[in-house]
């Protein structure tokens, strides 16, 4: 039987697809072994098998051995551990859509591409259906802790920076205020969830408290690093940290929950920085009118 001759365009697409399938197979297999939920575990295992079959099909056409992108595999494994499988699957999902359109370009020359395209679309649907990660059920609690910490601590630290002009004293004040506020916020969240008869009130309050405490640590850190008299540098670094925290968190939520990124980012950043600016002015006025000089 005469072997099929492929155009260079089709060969290039199939070789890339073959490598992508090999790569995704390893990623899905890792997720399947790590996942505890039986439904999610089964779907991920099936997806890994599908990707493996696709890779074999492309290999039968390209007649070439292709190695997976191990750097990408390790990167996605790391992201899965740190960010959760929902975030990673959403990133891969965008690739599934691209792959489907890519196969459509060679469907006349390679009829097998039709089945592969249908499988990719089914993968996308299954990905959407299976996304039920525990940590995303508590996004509201994390947002509450993060928002409150950013607004309250950014304003407090900004005001204290000018009033005290000493990084160590500001850091001490921030740590005491932050820990107290963390406990208060976690307790308030617990009582509020209990009032709503939420059986997972304790877990919700833990997510709120952890998000708050991590934010406190990141905001106070510049004041522990900079020399005592470099309060302005610590303040600027703290504000930059605020922007990065908001940027990172909103990107995570926008990817994992399909929410608009820019609007949420600008809203949260605008509120936090506005409160910081107002608090900074208040710190100046308090120091001036009370005549306090430390």
TrEMBL record:
Any Gene Ontology biological process: intracellular manganese ion homeostasis
Pfam family for this entry, one: Rubrerythrin
Task: Write out the entry's keywords from A to Z.
Answer: Membrane, Transmembrane, Transmembrane helix
- Entry keyword annotation includes Transmembrane: yes
Membrane topology label = Multi-pass membrane protein
Where do the TM regions start and end?
73-92, 169-192, 204-225, 231-253, 265-286
Name used for this protein in its record: Uncharacterized conserved protein
Say which species the protein is native to. Fusobacterium ulcerans
């Amino acid at each position: 039987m005469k072997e099929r001759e492929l155009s260079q365009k089709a060969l290039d697409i199939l070789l890339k697809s073959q490598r992508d399938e090999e790569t995704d197979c390893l990623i899905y297999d890792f997720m399947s072994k790590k996942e505890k939920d039986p439904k999610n575990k089964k779907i991920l295992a099936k997806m890994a098998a599908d990707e493996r079959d696709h890779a074999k099909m492309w290999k039968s056409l390209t007649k070439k051995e292709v190695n997976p992108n191990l750097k990408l595999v390790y990167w996605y494994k790391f992201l899965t551990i740190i960010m959760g499988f929902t975030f990673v699957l959403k990133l891969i999902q965008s690739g599934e859509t691209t792959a489907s359109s890519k196969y459509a370009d060679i469907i006349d020359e390679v009829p097998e591409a039709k089945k592969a395209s249908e499988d990719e679309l089914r993968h996308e649907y299954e990905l959407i259906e299976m996304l039920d990660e525990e940590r995303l059920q508590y996004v509201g609690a994390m947002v509450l802790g993060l928002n409150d910490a950013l607004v309250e601590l950014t304003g407090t630290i900004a005001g204290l920076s000018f009033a005290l002009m000493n990084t160590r004293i500001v850091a001490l004040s921030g740590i005491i205020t932050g820990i107290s506020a963390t406990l208060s916020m976690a307790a308030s969240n617990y009582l509020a969830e209990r009032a709503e008869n939420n059986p997972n009130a304790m877990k919700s309050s833990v997510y709120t408290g952890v998000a708050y405490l991590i934010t406190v640590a990141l905001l106070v850190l510049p004041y522990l690093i900079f020399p005592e008299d470099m309060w302005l540098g610590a303040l600027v670094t703290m504000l930059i940290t605020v922007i990065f925290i908001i940027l990172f968190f909103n990107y995570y939520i926008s990817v994992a929950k399909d929410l608009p990124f820019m609007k949420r980012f600008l809203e949260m950043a605008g509120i936090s920085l506005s409160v910081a600016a107002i608090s900074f002015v208040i710190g100046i006025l308090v120091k001036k009118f009370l005549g306090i000089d430390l």
